[in-house]
Automatic annotation (TrEMBL), chain A:
Keywords of the record: Antiport, Cell membrane, Membrane, Transmembrane, Transmembrane helix, Transport
UniProt protein name: Na+/H+ antiporter subunit D
Family: Belongs to the CPA3 antiporters (TC 2.A.63) subunit D family.
Record membrane topology: Multi-pass membrane protein
Pfam families: Proton_antipo_M
Native source species: Gracilibacillus salinarum
Ranges of residues in domain NADH:quinone oxidoreductase/Mrp antiporter transmembrane: 128-418
Membrane-spanning parts: 6-24, 36-53, 65-96, 108-127, 133-152, 164-185, 205-228, 240-263, 275-293, 300-322, 328-351, 363-385, 405-428, 449-471
Automatic annotation (TrEMBL), chain B:
InterPro entries noted in UniProt: CPA3_antiporter_subunitC, NUOK/Mnh_C1-like
Keywords: Cell membrane, Membrane, Transmembrane, Transmembrane helix
UniProt source species: Gracilibacillus salinarum
Protein known as: Na(+)/H(+) antiporter subunit C
PANTHER family referenced in this protein's UniProt entry, alphabetically: ANTIPORTER SUBUNIT MNHC2-RELATED
Keyword Amino-acid biosynthesis assigned: no
Transmembrane segments: 6-21, 28-47, 67-92
Length: 494, 112
C-alpha cells in the first residue's frame, strides 16, 4: 500500500490537468483550482520526500507485476528531491501566471498543459524503466509543444516548428537506441539492464549504445554541440512558460544522463566519462560566450542555461561521489535560479515593454525591490558565497580536482566569471543609469511579479545558507550513485 | 528475415532524413513520419520476428514469441501519430501566418 506513494506525484497533476480541461472557460475557478491543486501536490510530494528520506527508496511494481517484467516506478532520494524542486517551481509559476498571461491564453488550456508538464517531468524523474522514460519524455514534450505555441504569434509558430522537429528527431533516435539495447540485453528495466551490462563487462557494442544514448539526452539537455536549438524557442513563449522550460526541461535530460551513466554504463568510464569532461568544458565555454553575445535580456538568460548544464555534466564526468553530489546540488539550485531569472526578466520585459537591453535604463529608480532581487539572483547564478550556486560549484570543482581534472576546473571558474558578467550587464545597463522619464511605473504589477520570485529566492538562499543541513543527504545521494548495487537491489529485490 | 527488415528500416531512415533536410515544411513532416516508422520497424525486428509460437509464458513452453516489442511499438506509434498530427496543424498555421511554407524564409529578427 505504501508503495503507491511513488505514483502520486504523477497522478495528481495528471488528473488535475484533465479536470482543468472541463472548466477551462471559467477563469477564476480554474485559476484557484490550479493553485490549490499545486499546493496539495507539493504537500504530498513533501510527505513522499520525508518518507523516502526516513525509510529508503519506494518501489512500485505497477499492477503487481514482478520487477523485471512489469513497469516499475522507483522513488529514491534523488528522484524525489528533484520532483520536490519541480513542484516548488510549479508553485511559484502558477501564482505568477494570471498576471503574466492574457485571459485568452489562460482559457486556451494553459493550466492543462501546465499540469501535464509537471506530470511528465515527475514521471521522467520517478520511472525505473528506459522505455517509460521515453514515454514520459513525450508526455512532457507534448505539453511543452502546447505551451510554446500558446498565443499563436508569428515568432512562436516559427520557433515551435524547429523545437518540435528537433525533439521529435531525438525522440526517434531514443526509440532506436532502446531497440538496440533491447536486442543486446533483452530488457528495458534499468536495474536489470545495469545488472546484465555488468555481467558482460560492458562490451564494445554496449559502449556504442551508451554513446548513442548520450547523444539523445545531450540533445534534450542542450550540450555542446547540440544546444543551438535551445535559446530562441525558449524565449518565444510567455515568461512563465520560459521559466518552466528553463527550469525543468533541460534538467530532465541531465537527470537521465546522471541515471544512465551512474548505474548502467559505468564499466568503461575511461571512454564515456572522459568524453563527458571535455564536452562539459566546451559547453561551458560556448554557453558563456553565447550569453555575452546578445543584447536581448531574455536571450541572455536562455543562453545561461547552457553553461549550467555544462557544470552538471562535469560532475557526471569526473565520476566520484563528490562530483555526483555537486551535480545534484547544482541541479536543484539551478532549477530554482533559472526559474527566478526567467520570471524576473519576464517582469522587466512586461514593465518596460521591451526586451532589448539598449532601450532599458534606470529601472532602479522605479522598482528598487525588483532590482535587488535581480542582483541577488545574479549572485546565486554566478555562485557567490553564501548562496546555493556556490556550494554546488564548490563540490563540483572539488570533485574535478579529486580526479585530477585541473584544466576543466579552471575553465569552469573562468566560465563562472563570464556568466556573472553576462547577467550583471542586465543589472548595470538596465537598472542603473539615469532615470528614464518615459516609464509610467506600475507598482502593483511589480509587486505581484515579485512575490513568487521572493518565494523561490527564499529556497535558493536557504539551500546556500543552510548547506550544513542539506549537505549530508546530498552527499549520501552522491555515494548512492557511486554504488549502483543499491539501486539494483532495491528494484529487483534479490 | 531480420536482415531484410533491418535494411528496410535503414531505407526508411535515409529517405526520412533526406526529406527532413528539405526546405518545404510538408516534406519535413513526411520525413519525420518515415523516420518514426523506421524506428518502429526496428524495435519489432530487434525482438526477433518469427519464433512460431504465441507469447504464452509457462514452465513447459520453451518456444514463444516476445510480446514486449509489440507493446513498445504500440505505445510509440500512438505517440508518433499524435506528434505528426500536431506538426501538421502547426505547419498549416505557421504557413498561413507567414505566407510561406519555406523554412528558409522563416528566419527572422531576434527582437520581434
Amino acid at each position: 500500500m505504501i508503495s503507491n506513494l511513488a505514483v502520486l506525484p504523477i497522478v495528481i497533476p495528471l488528473i488535475a490537468g484533465v479536470i482543468a480541461i472541463l472548466i477551462h472557460r471559467k477563469l477564476t475557478i480554474v485559476r484557484r483550482f490550479a493553485q490549490i491543486l499545486t499546493v496539495v501536490n507539493t504537500i504530498v510530494v513533501a510527505y513522499v520526500l520525508f518518507y523516502v528520506s526516513q525509510n529508503g527508496a519506494v518501489v512500485l511494481e505497477a499492477g503487481d507485476w514482478m520487477a523485471p517484467f512489469g513497469i516499475v516506478l522507483v522513488a529514491d532520494l534523488l528522484s524525489v528531491v528533484l520532483v520536490f524542486t519541480t513542484n516548488i517551481i510549479a508553485l511559484a509559476c502558477v501564482f505568477y501566471a494570471p498576471k503574466s498571461l492574457s485571459d485568452q491564453q489562460e482559457e486556451f488550456y494553459f493550466y492543462t498543459f501546465y499540469f501535464l508538464l509537471i506530470s511528465g517531468v515527475s514521471g521522467a524523474f520517478i520511472t525505473g524503466d528506459l522505455f517509460n522514460l521515453f514515454v514520459f519524455f513525450e508526455v512532457l514534450l507534448m505539453a511543452s509543444y502546447g505551451l510554446i505555441v500558446l498565443g499563436g504569434e508569428k515568432v512562436q509558430l516559427r520557433e515551435s516548428i524547429k523545437y518540435v522537429l528537433i525533439n521529435l528527431f531525438s525522440s526517434m533516435l531514443f526509440v532506436t537506441t532502446i531497440a538496440f539495447l533491447y536486442s543486446v540485453v533483452g530488457t528495458v528495466n534499468m536495474a536489470q539492464i545495469a545488472q546484465r551490462v555488468g555481467e558482460v563487462e560492458q562490451t564494445g557494442v554496449l559502449t556504442a549504445i551508451g554513446i548513442l544514448l548520450f547523444f539523445v539526452f545531450g540533445t534534450k539537455a542542450a550540450l555542446f554541440p547540440l544546444y543551438y536549438w535551445l535559446p530562441k524557442p525558449y524565449i518565444a513563449p510567455n515568461p512563465v512558460v520560459s521559466a518552466l522550460f528553463g527550469a525543468l526541461l533541460t534538467k530532465v535530460g541531465i537527470y537521465s544522463l546522471l541515471r544512465v551513466f551512474s548505474i548502467i554504463f559505468v564499466h568503461k568510464s575511461d571512454i564515456t566519462h572522459e568524453l563527458f569532461i571535455w564536452i562539459a568544458a566546451l559547453t561551458l565555454i560556448f554557453g558563456a560566450i553565447g550569453a555575452m553575445s546578445t543584447n536581448n535580456i531574455k536571450l541572455i538568460v536562455a543562453y545561461n542555461i547552457i553553461p549550467a548544464v555544462g557544470f552538471m555534466l562535469l560532475g557526471i564526468g569526473v565520476y566520484n561521489s563528490t562530483g555526483y553530489a555537486g551535480t545534484v546540488y547544482y541541479l536543484v539550485s539551478d532549477m530554482i535560479i533559472k526559474a527566478v531569472l526567467f520570471l524576473l526578466v519576464g517582469a522587466i520585459a512586461y514593465l518596460t515593454g521591451t526586451s532589448d537591453l539598449r532601450k532599458i535604463r534606470g529601472l532602479i529608480h522605479y522598482y528598487p525591490f525588483l532590482g535587488w532581487l535581480f542582483f541577488i539572483a545574479a549572485l546565486v547564478l554566478a555562485g557567490i558565497p553564501p548562496f546555493s550556486g556556490f556550494i554546488g560549484k564548490l563540490l563540483l570543482l572539488q570533485g574535478a580536482i579529486e580526479s585530477d581534472q585541473i584544466i576543466v576546473a579552471l575553465i569552469g571558474l573562468a566560465a563562472s566569471l563570464l556568466i556573472l558578467l553576462s547577467v550583471m550587464r542586465i543589472f548595470i545597463r538596465g537598472f542603473w543609469g539615469e532615470k528614464d522619464e518615459s516609464i509610467i511605473p506600475d507598482k502593483k504589477a511589480a509587486r505581484s511579479f515579485a512575490l513568487p520570485v521572493v518565494f523561490l529566492l527564499f529556497f535558493s538562499i536557504l539551500l546556500g545558507v543552510g548547506a550544513e543541513w542539506f549537505y549530508p543527504s546530498i552527499a549520501s545521494i552522491g555515494d548512492y550513485l557511486m554504488n549502483p548495487e543499491t539501486y539494483i537491489q532495491s528494484v529487483l529485490k534479490e | 528475415m531480420e536482415i531484410v527488415m533491418s535494411i528496410l528500416a535503414g531505407i526508411l531512415f535515409t529517405t526520412g532524413i533526406y526529406n527532413m533536410l528539405q526546405k518545404q515544411m510538408l516534406r519535413i513532416i513526411i520525413g519525420t513520419a518515415l523516420v518514426s516508422h523506421g524506428a518502429h520497424l526496428f524495435i519489432l525486428t530487434m525482438g526477433e520476428l518469427k519464433r512460431g509460437k504465441p507469447p504464452v509464458l509457462s514452465d513447459e513452453i520453451a518456444n514463444y514469441s516476445d510480446p514486449l516489442p509489440q507493446a513498445l511499438i504500440l505505445t510509440s506509434i500512438v505517440i508518433s501519430f499524435g506528434v505528426t498530427s500536431l506538426l501538421l496543424v502547426l505547419a498549416y498555421r505557421a504557413s498561413k501566418e507567414n505566407g510561406t511554407d519555406n523554412m528558409e524564409k522563416l528566419r527572422g529578427n531576434e527582437n520581434d
